Amino acid sequence: MVVINKIYTKTGDAGETALGNGARVAKHSARVNAYGTVDETNATVGLARLHADGEMDARLAAIQNDLFDLGADLCRPDMEKDADAEYPPLRVTSAQVERLETEIDAMTDALEPLRSFILPGGSALAAQLHLCRTVSRRAERLTVELATAETINPAAVKYLNRLSDWFFAAGRVANNNGKDDVLWVPGANR
What we know:
Elements: E1 16-18, E2 24-26, H1 30-49, H2 54-74, H3 94-109, E3 118-119, H4 124-149, H5 154-174, E4 182-183
Antiparallel strand pairs: 1-2, 3-4
Helix pairs in contact: 1-2, 1-4, 3-5, 4-5
């Protein structure tokens, strides 16, 4: 169980932070940038939920929980030591990726195929979901960059890749199943 009884610790005042294994690293390290942007993605999902209800809200709540799992995964290096750990670290699983794929397929089946790129917008929920998409793409890029230098859980990258697709499909659903999508008109303002 997590117990937080003091918000500030002063341990980061010199520009370092602790990872999940206790190691201290610079706050601008690739690993901290990756899981920090996952946290930022989670905050954008919280904003989207202000406009969601029913099944969409429930799915977004599940994604928020997954994003905390992902942050915990990314803040814990040394995957090769997982088996020897007293408390095995939390890792994103292929089942979480597969759940996103199943939901994407279900949403996409209800949509007409696109004949144009769409602009982020339409309903308030769709606009927020497109913001979630772009922030999750940044988290993915930073996580892929981290993976070039350190070993990470491959399911973490897969999850982020599917997540941005999930947000795209959900944004279309939020726009009256795509009927209210805002279409890009190439060169419209020349």
